Amino acid sequence: MGEERVDMIVVREFDPRKDGVGVEEVERRCEVGPGGKLSLFTDLLGDPICRVRNSPAFLMLVAEIGEEIVGMIRGCIKTVTCGKKLSRTVKNNYSYNVINNNDLSKPVPVYTKVAYILGLRVSPSHRRMGIGLKLVHQMEDWFRQNGAEYSYIATENDNHASVKLFTDKCGYSKFRTPSILVNPVFAHRVPVSNRVTIIKLTPHDAELLYRRRFATTEFFPRDIDSVLKNKLNVGNFLAVPRGSLKSGSWAGPDSFLSDPPESWAVLSVWNCKDVFRLEVRGASRVKRTFAKTTRVVDKALPFLRLPSVPAVFRPFGLYFMYGLGGEGPRAAKMMKALCGHVHNLAKESGCGVVVTEVANREPLKLGIPHWKMLSCAEDLWCIKRLGEDYSDGSVGDWTKSPPGLSIFVDPREF
């Protein structure tokens, strides 16, 4: 099977006119695990590039032998924050937007062009033939041609085959270990503290708030305005202690940041439900019956606020919370109120779960409700520098930098 078959592998760009069925079949074969074990199936709703379509630049490649598609990979490129520096001169209008109250000693972001690999799949019947490696190398060639300085991937810590491929064969190094936090959407509404006021921000106000307070957060996208204005963005929400706004109501980000409350939190919500659906397969009849029973009881007696297992054994959608940030001693409590508000929005929309991803040491993590059994304590991000001819700049080699307290997870790539 070795070299002869490898020579027959052709890697080319995905053609939506003829590759849809073949790609769907590979996805199906890769997602469904061995009998008797739980596995997660992803329904891309007929759009194989849905998870990268909203990125500034993207590409999908397929590998085929003869006329059979046996593998695929997706990649996208964007400009993100990789560090920060002190700026003592205002060089352009963008720098002015980042600097708050004309304080020229404030840190400003250092940006780099980074590429992201996701959705690498190889048909189980064609593994150990070098197909995955060939797909990665060809995708990296496209990254370099488009000026990306770094490439990174996210994978489960216990996905040993994936970790080995990228770290042993492709030259990636383990970089960050964020946590994926998943909370079910119950049949009852979650109470939100009446001591907290929640304000819905316009995309413009949210952009200014993010740029002025969180633009130096690692992986913050330079085109945050495009993210916030995207039709998949459900809304942007700010939580403050009730009665803490000096003007009595929201007067815009300038007024807010000039004299903020002692504690506050902010987040945005992305509608993944209209992009893809998930389904847990392989569950026993006992588990299915138990889950259904909890939902029936919760729906019949919502005033008891009993936790119920969502209907994850059939296709379900999710809302993704991103841009989580806040300041002050009660910021985690403000975040908890925001998460309750998002839960109720997700319930109205028919979602099964609410998901977010945060840095392992994120202080706001304490305020994010989640079920441990559904969550992933340590997702693994691996990174690679694509070339040595780049300037080290003020950050140096980003792959060797220590992790910060926070990280910005782009919803377009979740």
UniProtKB/TrEMBL annotation:
<dbReference type="GO" id="GO:0016747">
    <property type="term" value="F:acyltransferase activity, transferring groups other than amino-acyl groups"/>
</dbReference>
<dbReference type="InterPro" id="IPR000182">
    <property type="entry name" value="GNAT_dom"/>
</dbReference>
<keyword id="KW-0808">Transferase</keyword>
<dbReference type="GO" id="GO:0009734">
    <property type="term" value="P:auxin-activated signaling pathway"/>
</dbReference>
<feature type="domain" description="N-acetyltransferase">
    <location>
        <begin position="9"/>
        <end position="191"/>
    </location>
</feature>
<dbReference type="Pfam" id="PF00583">
    <property type="entry name" value="Acetyltransf_1"/>
</dbReference>
<dbReference type="InterPro" id="IPR016181">
    <property type="entry name" value="Acyl_CoA_acyltransferase"/>
</dbReference>
<protein>
    <recommendedName>
        <fullName>N-acetyltransferase domain-containing protein</fullName>
    </recommendedName>
</protein>
<comment type="similarity">
    <text>Belongs to the acetyltransferase family.</text>
</comment>
<dbReference type="InterPro" id="IPR052810">
    <property type="entry name" value="Plant_NAT"/>
</dbReference>
<keyword id="KW-0012">Acyltransferase</keyword>
